[in-house]
């Protein structure tokens, strides 16, 4: 049988970015980026428990008033919306900066722009965000009302009556009908099934569509609340987020019964294939596990955005420099003309209009310097692009839209589209957990006229389902499963086995066991688990031949890449059973230390086993996995496999997936102590360095750049990692791993997977991506910079915890090599363009301030200054950031090396930033000086030349953008030329309003030929140098992307398929 998984269910990808910048601060691998364990995995004391009295909500809430069942997912109320929304928005430092600017402009001494105009940009941004937030919160309010007013059947005065969900209390008994949703977290008491089983669909909680089984205790199955009084006490843990864990006990009729995850029904789940279920409410409203998990995904910031913040700081320093130059020059100018200040315009100290001279518009030399500096900040404020933040959010939304609609990322088998989940709110369990592997038979064809009934097995693990089907094929058919017994048809004979106890799987024991009362009146313990954990508890003096044969079979199965399990059995005599039973009952009903007590009881009974044999399940690779791995490696992405499988299985699958090759030198580390782990790491480092020297090529990250010549693969097991992680040996492991082409970690626990990701994430600036498909991958996915979940047969926990989700592993190739490349190129260019666009405008204002003796008067109207980043130039950069494509999908997939442009930071780096600023400086000089000299001898006023500068800058920056567009569409044409036309219209309207300064200015200046000649001269003078430099660079020193674009442009598709492009080294500098 096979259970299809993508690539071992998990793989961590490490994108190299040039330098291995090791940080000085030491980090533990399990450090606190994520919450790894819920309260259910910890021990709880009496003070942490809550008491719930069955059918007595008054007494239940007497000591502590538990939360009602009303929920509220909305963030605001009518009265709190404005202050809370503004407080949330002003967490962005840029918004505080512009608020300070707007406040300063309200002071009479600093007023440069009109008071209303200065507030408008910030008010516009805040208003747009507030409207969006208000609409989203209105939808939440509406959803809350619908949810809270749903009806449920609640036991009132010995009969079930309908009650609104919001009025349900802890302690009340509820009756849920088939296909209804559970309104709160409920402990199951009885069901319509005589065995007390209930089938539950948890798709709304964890995304899994397969049915789960929940059981009522045998002592409460037969009780009918309408006919007899139900009394009892449930002592359970306090509310927590872990949807896979529950610790409690219930006292009924003098008996103390243990309760666990299989006895609780969670809010949001649906009852399926069961007519009704009755239970008692233990958690309501905001205390339910679903509501405790309804929080956003962990906040993750891209390296591009982090780098952008650094450049923003540089622009802030540059802004400070400009303001300082203006204020210092103004101080020098005032000092040289201190004797003329009484009569000079703008600075005259005396007002002679009312007889006796009075001081007028002058505050002394010191204050004038301070005021000049602050006024300069106001005038040059758009040097910091406030619109960039909104533009980036809109571009991300647009990019996500096209990624979701990409049919090449659509999986027909699972009928699932690509999902962008980052930042979404969902009911996702953040801490994972181990579920009990239980298989339940369901009758799927129960026609009355046919003696044949078809059975289907429902289970939480595809491996368990595969084993059940295989057993049925050999004549051992599971026909019934309850909490108290199982029935098996053995070669046509029905036999019943009583389930006396179950020890669930845990990562410490790595096995699980069940104690059964057999038809022959004997009691036997059956144990299954990993080979390493099973052979340690098997009596090797018994069945020696079978043990040797099983070990040989396991070796063969592992070399074939199969998942293996070992099974053992032991018969318990009466005294052993009694001893176990007393310890098990005490441990399973304990609230304090339950997990540790159960683990101890299990270890005591799981020993001296007789081997039964082993099973092997094919972990079938998804289609296209080997090809995907090859493409990713060709793209310069380092692949690390983190799996729980045994070493032989992991190695076999490594070869079948082309992760490992025959040309690689394998370094295997299997150590049982810290000292031996140290020796193994040191020896491996020596070996890897010798191989690197032999290759003769190294690069500055420490990893071999000659992977094709002498590649190294590191294979290390979980036992070794126990001694290495969170110790000083981490540094040795990191140094060794970065010298290897492939790292394969086998037999690793979920927390070790997160630790390996943290090993890279906390020590380099490399971007880490983790991809997995199971609950054991959740911590790894959340630890990585980018987490990808695969929706497969292992369930949906990985998907619910991920930033992105998809149906097939092979989709990772177009996701990274196509959409990742496009989005990086677009976003990098958009950030640089926004810096350029605002800086060229500010520098034109700066030159005018210098020309007018540092008076800080502006020829450009205040309204044009405010509308520049909002209307005049905002839309084109957003559209280009969403739609532009420098290369086709076909080319990017054919040449994975083109992904190296992102590794080398070709779209956004310090060199590009400074070159852009130099170009900006030249363009601003051209914009300012050409009209100045053209109109030097004319009588044109400042407002007219200011309109000319405004139009020139808008035309210039849009043509600058047009020069860099790779793929034109009608939308691109519309926004670029439309923005220029919109600017002409806005300037015309502003100048047509009599109350504004510069009334009718555009009409005077635009009617002359000189005006249009100036616009043409500005564009030519500003852009021709840039065009020439760009042409020379692309002609004499083209990059990989430019070569590929030329190949696309001048060759037919057939020729392009046969074209070979020599690319730069992935991690090296481009050829110059």
Describe the secondary structure blueprint for this structure:
Elements: E1 10-15, E2 49-53, H1 57-63, H2 81-89, H3 93-105, H4 115-148, E3 151-156, E4 159-164, E5 173-177, E6 185-191, E7 197-201, H5 203-206, E8 211-215, H6 218-221, E9 233-237, E10 248-252, E11 255-259, E12 264-265, E13 270-272, E14 276-283, H7 289-292, E15 294-296, H8 303-336, E16 350-351, E17 358-359, H9 365-379, H10 386-404, E18 419-420, E19 425-427, E20 439-445, E21 454-459, H11 462-473, E22 476-481, E23 485-490, E24 493-503, E25 511-517, E26 523-529, H12 531-534, H13 544-559, E27 562-572, H14 574-588, H15 594-605, E28 610-618, H16 625-634, E29 637-642, H17 647-656, E30 665-669, H18 674-695, E31 712-717, H19 718-724, H20 729-737, E32 742-746, H21 750-761, E33 767-772, H22 778-783, E34 786-790, H23 797-800, E35 804-806, H24 812-851, H25 862-872, H26 874-883, H27 889-894, H28 900-903, H29 910-934, H30 942-964, H31 970-991, H32 1001-1005, H33 1009-1036, H34 1040-1050, H35 1053-1057
Helix pairs in contact: 2-4, 3-4, 3-9, 4-25, 8-9, 8-24, 10-24, 10-26, 13-17, 14-15, 18-20, 24-26, 24-29, 24-30, 25-31, 26-31, 29-30, 29-33, 30-31, 30-33
Overview of the structural elements:
- It holds the Pfam family PhoLip_ATPase_N.
- It is found in: Membrane.
- It is a multi-pass membrane protein.
- Its EC number is 7.6.2.1.
- 44% of the residues lie in helices and 18% in strands.
- By secondary structure, the protein is α+β, with helices and mostly antiparallel strands.
- The strands form eight sheets. It has a nine-stranded mixed beta sheet with strand order 18-35-34-33-1-29-32-31-30, with helices on both faces. Strands 22-23-24-25-26-27-28 form a seven-stranded antiparallel beta sheet, with helices on both faces. The protein has a six-stranded antiparallel beta sheet with strand order 4-3-5-14-6-12, with no helix packed on it.
- A hairpin with a 3-residue loop joins strand 22 and strand 23.
- The N terminus is likely disordered.
């Amino acid at each position: 049988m096979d259970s299809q998984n993508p690539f071992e269910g998990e793989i961590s990808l490490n994108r190299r970015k040039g330098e291995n910048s090791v940080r000085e601060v030491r980090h533990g691998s399990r450090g606190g980026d994520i919450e790894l364990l819920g309260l259910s995995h910890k021990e709880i004391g009496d003070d942490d428990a809550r008491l719930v009295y069955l059918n007595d909500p008054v007494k239940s809430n007497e000591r502590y008033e538990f939360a009602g069942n009303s929920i509220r997912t909305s963030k605001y109320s009518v009265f709190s919306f404005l202050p809370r929304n503004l407080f949330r928005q002003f967490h962005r430092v840029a918004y505080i900066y512009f608020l300070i600017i707007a406040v300063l402009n309200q002071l009479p001494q600093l007023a440069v722009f009109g008071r209303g105009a200065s507030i408008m940009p910030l008010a516009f941004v805040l208003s747009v965000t507030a409207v969006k937030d208000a609409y989203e919160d209105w939808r939440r309010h509406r959803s809350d009302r619908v949810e809270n007013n749903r009806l449920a059947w609640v036991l009132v005065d010995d009969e079930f009556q309908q009650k609104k969900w919001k009025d349900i209390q802890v302690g009340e008994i509820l009756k849920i009908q088939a296909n209804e949703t559970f309104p709160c977290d409920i402990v199951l008491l009885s069901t319509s099934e005589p065995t007390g089983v209930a089938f539950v669909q948890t798709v709304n909680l964890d995304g899994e569509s397969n049915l789960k089984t929940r059981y009522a205790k045998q002592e409460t199955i037969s009780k009918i609340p309408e006919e007899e009084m139900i009394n009892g006490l449930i002592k359970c843990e306090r509310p927590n987020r872990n949807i896979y864990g529950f610790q409690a006990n219930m006292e009924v009729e003098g008996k103390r019964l243990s309760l666990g995850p299989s006895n609780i029904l969670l809010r949001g789940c649906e009852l399926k294939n069961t007519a009704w279920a009755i239970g008692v409410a233990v958690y309501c409203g905001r205390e339910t596990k679903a509501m405790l998990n309804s929080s956003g995904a962990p906040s993750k910031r891209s390296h591009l955005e982090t780098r952008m913040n650094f450049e923003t700081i540089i622009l802030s320093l540059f802004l400070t420099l400009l303001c300082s130059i203006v204020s210092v020059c103004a101080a020098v100018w005032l000092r040289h003309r201190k004797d003329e200040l009484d009569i000079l315009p703008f600075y005259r100290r005396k007002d002679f209009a009312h007889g006796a001279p009075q001081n007028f518009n002058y505050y002394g030399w010191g204050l004038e310097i301070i005021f000049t500096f602050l006024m300069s900040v106001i005038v040059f404020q758009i040097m910091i692009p406030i619109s960039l933040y909104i533009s980036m959010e809109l571009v991300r939304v647009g990019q996500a839209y096209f990624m979701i609609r990409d049919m090449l990322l659509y999986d027909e088998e699972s009928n699932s589209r690509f999902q962008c989940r980052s930042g979404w709110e969902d009911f996702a369990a953040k801490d994972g957990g181990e579920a009990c592997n239980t298989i339940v038979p369901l009758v799927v064809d129960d026609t009355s006229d046919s003696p044949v009934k078809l059975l289907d097995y429902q289970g939480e693990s595809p491996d368990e389902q595969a084993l059940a089907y295989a057993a049925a094929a050999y004549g051992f058919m599971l026909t019934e499963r309850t909490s108290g017994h199982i029935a098996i048809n053995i070669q046509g004979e029905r036999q019943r086995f009583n389930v006396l106890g179950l020890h669930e799987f845990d990562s410490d024991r790595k096995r699980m066991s069940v104690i059964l009362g057999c038809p022959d009146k004997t009691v036997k313990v059956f144990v299954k688990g990993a080979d390493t954990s099973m052979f340690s508890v098997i009596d090797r003096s018994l069945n020696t031949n079978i043990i040797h044969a099983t070990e040989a079979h396991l070796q063969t199965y592992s070399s074939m890449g199969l998942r293996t399990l070992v099974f053992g059995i032991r018969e318990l005599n009466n005294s052993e059973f009694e001893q176990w039973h007393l310890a098990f009952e005490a441990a399973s009903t304990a609230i304090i230390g339950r997990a540790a007590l159960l683990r101890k009881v299990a270890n005591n009974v799981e020993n001296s086993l007789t081997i039964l044999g082993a099973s092997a399940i094919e972990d079938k690779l998804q289609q296209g996995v080997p090809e995907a791995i090859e493409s990713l490696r060709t793209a310069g992405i380092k692949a690390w496999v983190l799996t729980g499988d045994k070493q032989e299985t992991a190695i076999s699958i490594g070869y079948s997936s082309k992760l490992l090759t025959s040309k690689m030198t394998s370094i295997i580390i299997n150590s049982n102590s810290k000292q031996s782990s140290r020796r193994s790491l040191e020896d491996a480092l020596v070996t890897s360095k010798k191989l690197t020297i032999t290759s003769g090529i190294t690069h500055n990250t420490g990893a071999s750049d000659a992977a094709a010549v002498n590649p190294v693969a590191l294979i290390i097991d979980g036992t070794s990692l126990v001694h290495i992680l969170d110790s000083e040996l981490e540094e040795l492991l990191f140094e060794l791993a970065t010298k290897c082409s492939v790292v394969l970690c086998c037999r690793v626990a979920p927390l070790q997977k997160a630790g390996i990701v943290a090993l890279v994430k906390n020590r380099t600036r490399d971007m880490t991506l983790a991809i997995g498909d199971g609950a054991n991958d959740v911590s790894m996915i959340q630890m990585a910079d980018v987490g990808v979940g695969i929706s497969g047969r292992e369930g949906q926990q990985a998907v619910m915890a991920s930033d992105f989700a998809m149906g097939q592993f092979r989709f990772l190739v177009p996701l990274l090599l196509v959409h990742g490349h496009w989005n990086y190129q677009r976003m990098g260019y958009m950030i640089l363009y926004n810096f350029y666009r605002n800086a060229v405008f500010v520098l034109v204002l700066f030159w005018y301030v210098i020309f007018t003796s540092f008076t800080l008067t502006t020829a450009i109207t205040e309204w044009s200054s405010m509308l520049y980043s909002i209307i005049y130039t905002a839309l084109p950069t957003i559209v280009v950031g969403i739609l532009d494509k420098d290369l086709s999908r076909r080319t990017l997939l054919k040449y994975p090396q083109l992904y190296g442009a992102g590794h080398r930071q070709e779209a956004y780096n310090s060199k590009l930033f400074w070159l852009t600023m130099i170009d900006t400086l030249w363009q601003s000089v051209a914009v300012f000086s050409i009209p100045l000299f053209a109109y030097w001898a004319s009588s044109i006023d400042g407002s007219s030349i200011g309109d000319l500068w405004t139009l020139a800058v808008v035309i210039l920056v849009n043509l600058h953008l047009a020069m860099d567009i790779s793929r034109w569409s009608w939308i691109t044409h519309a926004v670029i030329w439309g923005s220029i036309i919109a600017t002409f219209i806005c300037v015309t309207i502003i100048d047509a309003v009599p109350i504004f300064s510069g009334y009718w200015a555009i009409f005077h200046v635009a009617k002359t030929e000189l005006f249009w000649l100036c616009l043409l001269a500005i564009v030519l003078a500003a852009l021709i140098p840039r065009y020439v430099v760009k042409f020379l660079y692309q002609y004499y020193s083209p990059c990989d992307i430019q070569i590929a674009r030329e190949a696309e442009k001048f060759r037919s598709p057939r020729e392009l398929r046969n074209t070979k492009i020599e690319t730069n080294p992935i991690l090296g500098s481009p050829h110059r």
